[in-house]
Amino acid sequence: MRKRILRKTRGADRGEQAPLPPGVPGSEPASVAEPTGPRPPLPPKPDQGTPEPVSPTGQDTGADPLRDAQGGEHLTTAHGARRSDTDHSLKAGRRGPVLLQDHHFREKVSHFDHERIPERVVHARGAGAHGVFRGYGTAERISAAHVFKKDVETPVFVRFSTVLGSRGSADLARDTRGFATKFYTAEGTWDLVGNNIPVFFIQDAIKFPDVVHAAKPHPDREIPQAQSAHDTFWDFVSLHTEAQHHTIWNMSDRGIPRSYRTMEGFGVHTFRLVDDDGRSVLVKFHWKPKLGVHSVLWEEALLANGADPDVHRRDLADAIEAGAFPEWELGVQVFEDNEEQMFRGIDLLDPTKIVPEELAPVEPIGLMTLNRNPSNYFAETEQVAFNPNNLVRGIDVTNDPLLQGRLFSYLDTQLSRLGGPNWTQLPINRPHAPVNDMLRDGMHQTAVHTGVAPYHPNSLDGNNPFPADEPARPFIDVPAPVAGSVKERGAPVSFEDHFTQARLFWLSMSDVEKEHIARAYAFELGKCWEQAVKERQLQALANIDEKLCAAVAQSLGLPAPKPTVKHGRIAPSPALSQVGGQWPLDGRLVGIVVGPDPDEKDLLAVTGAIDAAGMVPLVVAPHGGPVGRGGLVAQRTYLTARSVEFDAVLVAGAVPPASDAQPSFDAKAGARSGPGIDPRVQLLLDETFRQAKAIGTWGRSGALAAAGLPEGAPGVVAGRDAAAVVEQVVELMRSHRAWERFPVPGRL
Ligand code: HDD
User: Fold this and answer.
1) Which residues of 278-315 are buried (b: 16+ CB within 10 A; e: fewer)?
2) ipTM value of the model?
3) Domain end call among 576, 605, 631
4) Closest Cα to atom 26 of ligand 1
5) Does residue 669 share a domain with residue 645?
C-alpha cells in the first residue's frame, strides 16, 4: 500500500501550510516567547530517535551517549562546572589582554580547534539513515545467518556517498555512489559495503592506491574537485583496460542518480553463504529500490551542483522526515560453490564482471526500510566505520583478490581516521550483540573492563570468555581448498577479457541512454588536455563499439581508430537499462507556479491531490509569504526556484509578464524573452521542458503559448480542469521522464 506523506513539521520549506505571519488577516497574534529561563535540551525530532544505550561489553558502564552528551539545564564546562558567561573572555580590565587562566576560553577554543577528523580517503561525502531489515526466510535454505531468517527484524544504518569529492563537494558529481549497510544482527555486526555500480575499476586491491591517485584532483593544484573529467583519470583507465567496464557505467546515467532512493546497490564481489551443515554456495548481492532506478540529465547535474549542492542529502532526509520511507529489496544471484568458481564462462572472482540477471535471476531475500534520520551528523554519519571483515555466521568471503585486499584496508584506515583501535566502541559502531572479547586498553578506551585474565586459556577468570561450541552458533570458517600452491604475483587468464562486458552494457542500453553515454564521454575527454590520453581512450571505445567511438571522436575532432579486438555475438541484458516501466512516486517534488492572485480553491485541491499521491507540492509564487488570501504560503519564489528541484512543474492559471516584486535584471539572464511571461518562469519552463519532465497547465493560463512551448508535445498537458490535468501529470511522472519528447535519431 502506498505510504501517505505525513504532515510536514517544519513549515513553509517543507511544503506545509505554515501559520500566517503576524499582522496578516487571519493569523494568530505574535506570541513567540524568547527563552527567559534555563530549558532542557531540545527533544529529538519525530524521525530522530535516541541512540541505543548499548554498552560494548554488554555490562552497564553507565555510557548513555545522549544523557552524557547533554544533561542538566545549565551551561557547563566539559567537566560539569556551571558557567555564567560564555560571551566574554576573562581580561585584565575590559580593554586589557586576555588572561591565560581563562579555562573556559581555552577549553572552548581548544576543543573547537580539534573538531575535525581526517575525512575518508575516498567516499568522504555522504549521507546516512537508520532503518530496519526484515528477512523473507527465502535464504534460510542456503545460509545459517540469523539476519535472513523469516520475519527477523534487524536494525541497520546505511551510508550513501560519492567516491571522489571531498566532504564539502557537490552531490551530483558524475561518480560512482557508495551504498554501505551495517546490519546490527543479533549474532554480531554484518557490513555489506557496496556501490551503485556492480563492477569495479581494478581486479587486484594492490591497484587501489593507483586508481584513487589518478581519479582524485591533480596533486599540484588540487583540481578538479569531485570529477573524473581530467587527464590523470583518463590516463589511468585508458592504460588499464580492465577499468573500461566500470567507466562506461560511470558515463551512463547511473553516474548521476536522481536520488539515493532511486539507486540500485551491489555487493560487487562474489560472497559465500553457508548453511548450518557447512554446505556453501556462491552469491552476488543486489539491492533493488522499490522506487525504481532513475537518473537526472547532465544539465540538471550541473545546475543542481550550483543551485543545490546538497540535493541528495536533502532528498533523503526530507523523504524520511515526510514519512516517505525508502525501501530496497535485498536479493541474491546464487551459484554452485565448485572448484572452478566460473559461471557460463564468467569468472566469479573477477570484480570487473557481472552475471546478467537473465542468466541468473536475482532472488529476493529481505526488505530494508530506512525510517529514521540521524540525530547528529558527526556522531553517526561521519563516525560510522564500515568494514568488509564484519561477517557473521552464515556469510563468508571468497578469494576475489579485490575483496581480499579490502579485508586489510578498512580496518587499517579507521586507525588514523578515528584515532585508534577502539572505534568499535563509538555508539554508531557498537554491535547490538553482546561483546566479550580480549581486546584491551588503547587510545579512547571507554569500556571499563573487569577481570584479570584477558587471555586464553586462563584459570584466574574461570577461563572466561569461553570459545563458542556449535550449539552457541559460532562463525563458520568454510574449509575452502586454497587453489594452487605456488606463491606468485599475477592474475588468471580469465581476468584478461576487458571489453566483452563493456560492450554487453552498451548493447543493453536504449537509444536515449546511448546518446547520454556518448555525450558524457565527449564531455569528459573534451576536458582532457593530453592528446595521447584522448587517443588511447578512443582506442578503448573502438573496442567497445565502433559507432560509439566514431561519435566521441567526431566531437573531439579526432580520427576514430579501428578496433583491435573482435567480438562474437553478445546477447544484451535488458535488466541493465533504466528506461521503461512505471514506478511509485513517493517523495517526488512538484513545483506549482502561481501568479499573484491564483484560484485558491483549485490550488488547495491540487496540493491535496499531489500530497495524496505521496508527493510534495511546492508553491512557486512571485514573492514569499502568503499566496492570495487563503491558507497557503509560497515555498519558493520565482527567484529561488530552479527546474532541477522539481520532478514536474504545473502552472496554475495566469502568470504575469514580469513580476513587480522583483526587479528583473538578473531574472533576464539566460532566459529567452517570451511575450508576456515573467522571464524567470520562462527559464523554469524552458529547462523543465528540455529535461523531459512533465508539465501541466490549466485555466486561462496561456502560459505554454506565452512561454513558446509546444502544447501537445509528449509529457505536456493543458486543460481547463485542474484536477484532470494533475491526474494526467501524475500518470506521466510514473515513467520518470517523457523521453519521447526528443526522439533520438538511433544513430548509435
Ligand atoms: Fe572501498 C570506503 C565501497 C574497493 C578501501 N569503500 C568505502 C566506502 C564504500 C566502499 C561504500 C564508504 C564506506 C562508508 O560510507 O564509510 N570499496 C567499495 C567497493 C569496492 C571497494 C564496492 C570494490 C568492490 N575500497 C576498495 C579497495 C580498497 C578500498 C580495493 C583498498 C584496497 N574503501 C577503502 C578505504 C575506505 C573505503 C580506504 C575509505 C573510508 C573507509 O574505508 O572506511 O579503506
Assistant:
1) eebbbbbbbbbbbbbbbbbbbebbbbbbeebbebbbeb
2) 0.99
3) 576
4) 406
5) yes
